[in-house]
Amino acid sequence: MTLAYNPDNLFAVKVWEVEFRKTDQRTLIARIYQPQGTGPFPVLLDLHGGAWSRKDRYANEPMARAIAAAGMLVVSPDLRLSHEAPYPASVQDANYAIRWLKHKSKEWNADPATLGVLGSSSGGHIAQLLGMRQHDARYAAIPLPEAPHIDATFSYIATRSPISNPVTRRAQAEKKGNKEMMKKSDTYFSVPDSIHDGNPQEILDRREKVTLLPMLIMQGGHDDNVIPPIQEKFAATYRAAGGECQLEIFEGCEHEWTAVPGPDADRSHAMVKAFIAKQLRALQKAA
After folding, report:
1. Buried b / exposed e across 121-159, counting CB within 10 Å, b at 16+?
2. Domain segments of the chain: what residues?
């Protein structure tokens, strides 16, 4: 039986890295945060942000360590960046990562049935797409020959500043005259109409048939990149569609506060751990 996840636990954590996937450009690496204990532990996939154009497996290190120390295997993979391949390449990498991690979990003393996904900023956008479109054949285009029967389903989504509406986010960048951010969006969504296809808010607005997993959205109140109204509208639409969405506004915080040491970062770590514990209790009860 999977060990219960208690946010107050404090395990020693072994951190190591493994080759995750080879692409035409480079080898993607996954960073593993493995609690040292009897287990088996629940498991979490951590998807990095960076406006689809930068950052890597190290981006969310403080959060990943905090979650792992409470008794969870956390895996943070590299994803292809927009200059390497546009949408949906990074979503495909993350879909592959879910299947790969479910395949590897038992080897790393974790239970694949407990898998959840954590995503920050553009990683949150990817997490939302994967959660809502769990059986999308386009996203599952990268084969996993060693375990072809494993699917990309998972149980819950936790996010920090997710790009829940890329169209509105790009409009905000244009309003601010942020040409660099506009370019990042245009590079990722370079295929015509892909910014609408890969848009969580518009997916709900179109009333596509989707899976509505329990979701946590943490949002900085002073974020002028992904502004709070984006999340407020998305959360309201998600709930109206029948989903559970916990939206928490961190007043006075900018876009990347969870990685800056201090009380707000500590509160965000505690909030994610509490959300995960709640979802795992529900899974255990359902079983």
Report:
1. bbbbbbbbbbbbbbebeebbeeebeeeeeeebebbbbbb
2. 13-286
